[in-house]
Amino acid sequence: MDRDQFRAAAHAAIDEIIDYFDGLPSQRVVPTVEPGYLRPLIPEDPPEEPEQWSQIQADIETKIKPGLTHWQSPNFMAFFPAGVTYPSILACTELETIVMDWMAKALGLPECFLSSSENKGGGVIQVTASDAIATVMIAARERRVREQALAEGLKDGTVEYEDRVMELRPRLVALGSNQAHSSTAKGALLAGTRYRSVTARLEDNMEMTGPRVREVLEQCDKDGLTPYYITLGMGTTNTCALDRFAEIKAVLKEKPHWQRIWVHIDAAYAGAALVADEWQYIAKDFAEGVDSFDMNMHKWLLVNFDASCLYVRNRFDLTDALDITPAYLRNPYSETGRVIDYRNWSISLGRRFRALKIWFVMRSYGLSGMKAFIRKTIGLGNIFADLVRSRSDLFEIITKPAFCLTVFRIKSPKLRSNPESSVPQIDDASNAITKEVYELVNSRGEIFITSSVIAGVYAIRVVSANPAAEEKYLRRARVLVTGATGFIGAHVVDSLLARGIAGEQMIAARPEHASKLELVQIEDFSKLGVFDHVMEGVDAVIHVASPFTYNTTNNEQELILPAINGVKSILAASAKPGSRVKRVVLTSSFASVIDISKNPGPDFTYTGAHWNPITYGESVDPATSAVIAYRGSKKFAELEAWNFIEREKPAFDLVTFCPPMVFGPIVHPVASIAQLNESNAVLWSVAAGADPLPAARVTAWIDVRDLAEAHVQALLTPEAGGKRYVPASGEPFCYEYAADIIKEKFDWARETVTTNYEVGKRPGPTYKLDGEAVTRELGVKYRSFEQTVEELVRQVKETMA
């Protein structure tokens, strides 16, 4: 039902409760139905498809209420007003039996766990999995000592029998993996027995294995201890590992006294996955050699707390251990054995009507809805795991992702520089940075995650099993990209989306990514405050937009100040109180680096430490050409960014890129060749027959895709903060080289490319750019000039020419 339907149903339910209490004095207190009345009225199997609330509500009136003892009636004088015996909770008991059978079928459990099974199995709703473990551990203890005492010829009820039982109990030992939930160790404490832990190891994906169990069992034998119980995990708490059921059960068959060990499957969380057919192969291992199984519907199967479903192969193992029936609890139904008394299936005497809400959920969702929910959340877990894998340079998955859970750590510089090991190694630096990231994320309070230490490895746990979970919450990082419809900005957006990072793009029109982007149009970047209204929820900024024109009448007003003010505007908005921005990546230009008046020679390398020596006065001088003024605009805009960081000391850090010529395919909307960006237009002119060929003022270049990748890598690499990069391929270019490539790759170009040039000419030695820093620190590998030229020319020819 939707929110309005839920609101209406809730109001109607309140009215019904009021009417019920108003009518209690005039109603018969005790129901007139006979034991077993409900089974014929309820379908044998759970519904496949969802049912309307009106149907469920009608069944409450006609099927449930006739089986209730009205213990809130003023005429209920039998005992304290909270009945626990069968006559006082007839409908509650019978519905519990029915829905537990429904759930057993839904989970694909073997028939031995059904209430109708020949072996007298069945299910009972416990409060939590911890209660279930404590309950079955007591039953396992009593079964083991009883078997031993009877085997010795002692008679139950005698002093000798009781003395022997008390002698046997202290030598009993319960087993569980070191990854088992703490409830197993606590259960042994409550049962008054010993506990031994079986070590699960990273090389085994933290799964408990047969050989490890054998080692502990053999040590118990040497120590004169009697193992009587073992918890096997289906989805351990730390890592959602699956203990190796078949392997362990095979070990338990090796010795007669090991065969008597009670085997319990703790599937508190992951057991819910069994409703999806593709996971039910796991349950086939429970058909033999398993005494009990428990899963919590309140963890991952749409039922509110508490609803823990415990199944046992033999119900008498429970009742023999837990049946205490004083005279005031005796009744004819229980005395004849015609009914189930769930008070003998658990530690508590009083019980809530938990079956009702399970019945509601199973009917409201249907099996199809429950399966769809499990598959959706597992799919979300897979998405997150893939996101982590896509940044293997930063993250390492510790154990195999399972059941919506991904367990990972942040790589230290040492781990990032070494090949990844098949088994994660303990690394103190990685432990420290992972813990720091975990604490930082939780301190912000916007999302909540957990951490753990797994075999000495500090790890972060992210799980997507919340009913409200959606992909957009996993892909939580939000990045503002300015100039996103431009040549470079559009590629930056694509690179972000490839990593699953949501974007807010300025002046954008990318319909293929509409569901992942928020589009905002800003009329004038250079005005302070224009970005303020779009910064909410933004975690980082990539500022690509900048004025570009060689057709100016006033260098300062049309180039210099707009560039500077655009930077001021975005940085000021990012620094506003309450801003979440942690990093700003800014696109500058090699023009802010190079000293165009000099040729320093082939042994000189421009790095991020170099600045163009042009002065502000030279840049704004009316006599200065627009080309020179543009270089000044790039320098002084970038310089303003670094000065802002120094002056304002904001919560974010800064990374800048100073690329030379940028070529490559186009991903932003371009209707015609006339709309090509400047660098690509010049390169295409070679293919179109420019004569003479253009002259390369700068022989350094970069593919736009590599530049976009560098921007995103800088955003995601913590160590990049505060750095200035000069990204450039190590392969210089000239337009003669481009002409050779175009003629070689395209037959048609041999007719269009001019012959008026020096074939085979390559750039002469000039100077170098430190593009290797981008490869070394950000992991960007540069494409070849041949690949870039070929792909751009083919695209333009096929789509625009």
From TrEMBL:
<dbReference type="InterPro" id="IPR015424">
    <property type="entry name" value="PyrdxlP-dep_Trfase"/>
</dbReference>
<dbReference type="GO" id="GO:0019752">
    <property type="term" value="P:carboxylic acid metabolic process"/>
</dbReference>
<keyword id="KW-0210">Decarboxylase</keyword>
<dbReference type="InterPro" id="IPR015422">
    <property type="entry name" value="PyrdxlP-dep_Trfase_small"/>
</dbReference>
<dbReference type="InterPro" id="IPR010977">
    <property type="entry name" value="Aromatic_deC"/>
</dbReference>
<dbReference type="Pfam" id="PF01370">
    <property type="entry name" value="Epimerase"/>
</dbReference>
<feature type="modified residue" description="N6-(pyridoxal phosphate)lysine">
    <location>
        <position position="299"/>
    </location>
</feature>
<dbReference type="GO" id="GO:0006520">
    <property type="term" value="P:amino acid metabolic process"/>
</dbReference>
<keyword id="KW-0663">Pyridoxal phosphate</keyword>
<keyword id="KW-0456">Lyase</keyword>
<dbReference type="InterPro" id="IPR036291">
    <property type="entry name" value="NAD(P)-bd_dom_sf"/>
</dbReference>
<feature type="domain" description="NAD-dependent epimerase/dehydratase">
    <location>
        <begin position="479"/>
        <end position="723"/>
    </location>
</feature>
<dbReference type="InterPro" id="IPR002129">
    <property type="entry name" value="PyrdxlP-dep_de-COase"/>
</dbReference>
<dbReference type="InterPro" id="IPR001509">
    <property type="entry name" value="Epimerase_deHydtase"/>
</dbReference>
<protein>
    <submittedName>
        <fullName>PLP-dependent transferase</fullName>
    </submittedName>
</protein>
<dbReference type="GO" id="GO:0016831">
    <property type="term" value="F:carboxy-lyase activity"/>
</dbReference>
<comment type="similarity">
    <text>Belongs to the group II decarboxylase family.</text>
</comment>
<dbReference type="InterPro" id="IPR015421">
    <property type="entry name" value="PyrdxlP-dep_Trfase_major"/>
</dbReference>
<dbReference type="GO" id="GO:0030170">
    <property type="term" value="F:pyridoxal phosphate binding"/>
</dbReference>
<dbReference type="GO" id="GO:0016740">
    <property type="term" value="F:transferase activity"/>
</dbReference>
<dbReference type="InterPro" id="IPR021115">
    <property type="entry name" value="Pyridoxal-P_BS"/>
</dbReference>
<dbReference type="GO" id="GO:0005737">
    <property type="term" value="C:cytoplasm"/>
</dbReference>
<keyword id="KW-0808">Transferase</keyword>
<dbReference type="Pfam" id="PF00282">
    <property type="entry name" value="Pyridoxal_deC"/>
</dbReference>
